[in-house]
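Re: Re: ligand-bound prediction request (bumping)

Still looking for help on this. To restate: I need the protein modeled with magnesium ion bound, output as structure tokens. Inputs repeated here so nobody has to scroll up.
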Amino acid sequence: MGRLITVSIDCRNEAARQTFEEVVSRRRDYLITRGEGTGTADMLLLELDEFRPQKTFDHVRELLHSSPHLEVFLTASRTDPQLLLETFRAGVKEFLPQPLTLKDVEPALVRFEGRLMGRASSSETKSGRVVSVIGARGGVGVSTVATNLATSVQQAQLQDSVVLVDLDTHGSDLGLFLDLHPAQGLKHLSKDISRLDETIVRSTLVTHSSRLHLLASGYDGFDEVEPTAGSSMRVIGLLRSMHRHVFVDCGHVLEPAVKEALDCSDEVIIVTTLSLPAIRRTKRLLEAFGAAHYPAGKVLIVVNRYSNDQKELLVETENMLGVRMAGLIPNDYETASEALHHGKPLTMMAPKTAIGQWYTRESQQLIADGAAGNKAAGRKPSNAASFLSRYLPSLGFEAKGKPSAV
Ligand SMILES: Nc1ncnc2c1ncn2[C@@H]1O[C@H](COP(=O)(O)OP(=O)(O)OP(=O)(O)O)[C@@H](O)[C@H]1O
Ligand SMILES: [Mg+2]
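Reply:
Sorry for the wait, this slipped through. Here it is.
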């Protein structure tokens, strides 16, 4: 479905609850929320109060009045026609007779998904584009790239709303890159995702002078808790409905919260360097994305800290990986570190340097290429016999041809 479907259950009948939970948990992208109310849930399984059915119907009407997109599934052991008539009049979308069976629940969920997709396709036209940035390994420059891409896009498209999300739970601090001091972040939002809505997410964002919004991580690497299952997908889903561009710093660990973000991204940028360990890990990441059947053009690779004396190594790496690098960011440790030290984006701190200009010039192209189906990384690789070539079809790359220069 591309987004997380949240389900709330209000059912005292243990057998019915269990059957429903079992069927739901077998389907992808569903999350059963444990919150008390329905919050922003997409669906509620509600049990009829058979002694006071009118009370249940009034409750359904109230719920649908305050959450028009909620779908209510009603379950009861009574199935008389009058009851069914009143059930659907109250706005219930599906009726599940007890005892619940797979035969009844499965098709009801399929019908629900169909209705949800119909609604999504009309609202998705205004939904923002999600670009996730992940490092081949630690320290390759993911945070620098994510922050500076987001700032450059914000500077170039002043009228558009851009948000940067820090999803590195191992101690990243994007606030430092922008001299921002957020009090809360994803960790706070992740506490009860059943209650999340745009207002709560908006109140957690901080804004940079460039107008870029930041959602901090809140995790410092010493936490005992991880983001709750579904939280990054849910938060990104809400952010993309509020912003034109969403950039995500995924750190370099392929953990569940990061996988969720990557799955729901329109574009994934792997940041690597031309060092052997980073190249090896880049290959592993491409294999993982191949196994996940990411569509053609979704994955781009950018080489950070590139210097002109690495031309040969670049060609060898492209041949070995069987893909063309989408961008080469010049090596300039002094400028990159100074910008970080001052908490300023490179395009503001050092707009005339090669690295500053790369972000001003190339970042637009990088995002545009991704939007247009990834022309850069989709160019033909040269080494059909390479180890990686086995994974190319599922990555959407052809296993023949020669990579051309960026
Ligand atoms: N193009 C570049 N040339 C030289 N140095 C760079 C470049 N880009 C980033 N750096 C420097 O590399 C260091 C690491 O950068 P950054 O923090 O962005 O990496 P990271 O992958 O996010 O690291 P971590 O794994 O710790 O989160 C910083 O000192 C940064 O200034
Ligand atoms: Mg980082």
